[in-house]
Amino acid sequence: MAHYDIHNIVNFPAGFRLLIKIGEFSSESAHDQGLVLNEEMIEWPIAFKKVWIHGNIRYIQRTPQSLCSQRCGPGFRKMPQEGRAVCCYICVICPERDISNHTGRKHCIPCADHESPNMERNRCLPKLVTFLAFEDALGTALASVALSFSVLTAAVLWVFVKHRDTPIVKANNRTLSYILLITLLLCFLCSLLFLGRPNTATCLLQQITFGLVFTVAVSTVLAKTITVILAFKVTKPGRTIRRLLVSGTSNFIIPICSLIQLALCVIWLGISPPFIELDAHSEPDHIILVCNKGSVTAFYCVLGYLCSLALASFTVAFLARNLPDTFNEAKFLTFSMLVFCSVWVTFLPVYHSTKGKVMVAVEIFSILASSAGLLGCIFLPKCYIILIKPDKNSLKALKNQRSSRGS
Predict the structure, then answer these.
(1) Taking the model in full, what pTM does it have?
(2) Pairing of strands 124-126, 128-130
(3) Do the Cβ atoms of 134 and 196 come closer than 8 Å?
């Protein structure tokens, strides 16, 4: 059993220190009566006095704080100070995903995945659902670029149809040129499927349409390249190569390559098709509505097959780049495939380093950039000759150029 007297050191008169009993503590007493203090007899040092005025009333606080730090309010947590007493700490604001809704918290509480803390970090609020919409600045810019290139492709197609009987249009299989232009038009338009609020239908159409349309485009480039090579290999009537050229064997490349890609897409849909996903971690204040690829392996198989076709087209076009002719487009096909491969090789690391709406924007940009590369490298030089230099787009000019080379 313990019994203690509580004394106060009083400096009175000046220079004298007296011990005055102001209370006592006894462990034998009841719990709420063990400590007895006579607060009127306590003499606090001047340093403990705090004076403030509220209205016309003057207040004096004579009691020292029992802690060496102020209490941490809501939105903050206590962090102990190394080398100091337990009662000494600093108040640290809660992390961006956590809150503290009471005073004196030692730990912050994380919000649920579908919630985010307010600015004061003392309350969790429901997150807003967002997606890459047409109304967003980024969405509007991408949609405008896609529509602009679509109009440009349609204009190029109109120019080729109008001048279909000229040598430059007939030189490299105008049917394949029409197919490629229509396919490029669909490539630009398919990028619009990635914009707006995702649903089950658009999630399925995004990747399937992208894979099939680009396969047709690249296989058409491959068919055009093979057509160029076959045309220059024809030297004697009745040769097998001549029969291949006349029968249009190169045109079968498009349906064969497209059917292989279609089979890959059907397997993808059967194993693990794309679906809608709520991304609650990319942005702290929003839940992003995106399309999950489903089977990542199937997605890379589709993309890998597309890149292998592009690589084959690039290789064949590169080998045929030096074939002599006025309207030989092998050089343009080579450069177009180089641009195409460069875009999609760059796409992979950038795609994996982004999240949320930016990831969708990167895929749209890659679709637009690769399609624009094909359109610009293959068709714009021809349009330049058709519209700006029509004197070069004639049989007379062709014969003059060949005769000058021969001489």
Answers:
(1) 0.71
(2) unpaired
(3) yes
